[in-house]
Amino acid sequence: MASPALWSSPRTKDGGGSYELAIWRQDNVRPDDAALLSIAQKVLPAIPGWAAAG
Question: Is residue 31 a contact partner of residue 5, using CB atoms and an 8 Å limit?
Answer without folding.
Answer: yes
